[in-house]
Amino acid sequence: MLTKQFFLNKTGQLLLHITFWCGVLLFYTYFFGFDSTDFSYVLSFSLFLMPITIATTYVFIYKLIPDYLITKKYFQFGMYSVYTIIISSYLIVISVFYGLIYLSHFQYADMAPISRNLLFVAIAVYLVVILVSGFKLLKLNLKHITQTNKLENKILETQLKLKEQQLNYLKMQIHPHFLFNTLNTMYGFALKKADEAPEMILKLSNLLDYLLYKVDKPFVLLTDDIDHIKDYIELEKMRFNETLDITFLTAHIPEDIKVAPMLLLPFIENSFKHGAIKNGLLSIKINLTCKDKIINFSIENTNKQSEPHKNGIGLENIRKRLDLLYKDNYTLNLINKSTFFKVNLTLNTGE
């Protein structure tokens, strides 16, 4: 099958070349036949010029341009081009003598008018060479552009796959962290045989549904993310009981704005995990607002004076995820003081 296709391609190219050179021959007979009635002379003279034109053209398009000009070997290209022009010019001179000696038998007046002028003969030959060489350059440039585009697409494809793998790796780290904290809370309630256990299981079920089925999506509605954050906070309220003082304020949240899943929850997890109980309370303040597709999120929790807040796996991963998903469209500031730890995140989802 491949051999047949190769044969058809070569045959098509051969027919195309033959058709083109037949067209050049017609051009020569028309050009040199101007103001001449001796068709036999004009045709013979044109046929004599054809091998010179063909050889010069093919030297340029199959050797000089691909091997030297395209590869930026300009010195060699210039040098060999001069050699080619000198040789072809010599052959053009011979063609004029051919017309004078063999076709008109030394009768200068019997020569076709244009064929007497060496400059016009050279212009006719080199015009064809220049046109074909220009077409060859255009074809090579288009081929180069196509190859470059294919290479760029492959690079982009590889980068996207790499980013996807990195994101999956980061999510694999976040999920166990989240589950570990939540299951620890459930374990404590199970030991106490608390009445709140069924409600806790229901909220955990909602969180697991989110974790297993929605977190693999590239983006989720911010409103859905907020609902699951509220479920998580309710679970933690059950665990901390009277020792938790938490506020979660949201304002101006559009129904259509989307974010990457599990983007904000790790901040809240870390506040519970690394936050310190002071004066009998773990104090956490969360604010989430939106304006013109820009999300402003802040969370602050109490911190021990002797043990400054540790970033942990969640914050490190969330910064990497932000770099991969939002790149230059976010700002993340961490304020780590002896008495409190605060996160300020501004996220532009409209870019």
From TrEMBL:
Q: Give the keywords, sorted.
A: Kinase, Membrane, Transferase, Transmembrane, Transmembrane helix
Q: Which GO terms describe its molecular function?
A: kinase activity
* Entry annotated with the keyword Transmembrane helix: yes
Which sequence ranges are marked TM in the entry? 12-33, 39-65, 77-98, 118-138
Instruction: Please provide an example of a Pfam family that matches this protein in its UniProt record.
Output: His_kinase
Q: What is the top-level taxon of the source organism?
A: Bacteria
What positions does the domain Signal transduction histidine kinase internal region occupy? Answer: 166-243
* Claim: Hydrolase is one of the keywords in the record: no
The protein's name: Histidine kinase
Q: Which organism is it from?
A: Flavivirga algicola
